[in-house]
Design a protein that fits this description.
132 residues, alpha+beta, Alpha-D-Glucose-1,6-Bisphosphate, Chain A, domain 4
Length: 132
Amino acid sequence: MTTIQSNATLNKSVEEVYAFLTDLNNHEQLMPENIYNWSSTADEARFTIQNMAKLALKVNQRVANESIVLIPSEKAPFDLSLSWKLTALSATQTKADFVIEADLNMMMKMLASGPLQKLADHQVAQLSILVG
């Protein structure tokens, strides 16, 4: 299993960060420009990654003010999970960790690990801008 992660410290309470992340409708704002055909509900998101694949994700687990775990709701090119893990540093500061775990063979790892790291870094950077 390949693990890719990125994190940031946000100047918002863990409750505010969790409230934003728990609704998948908000995740479109975290995506890079090569994502299109976005459609979502609070619990599921579908989109296309330019020149790659269509992906449908659903919430697999929510732990209030701690974590949100997303998994494919349809067949994906490889097994993966996307997790947001939140840690309250103070009443007004939260550490957000974004972790992508993907079951990649050696060839897929060479092709996909760079774009997946860019995705993780982009989502964390966007969350810092949007939530603070």
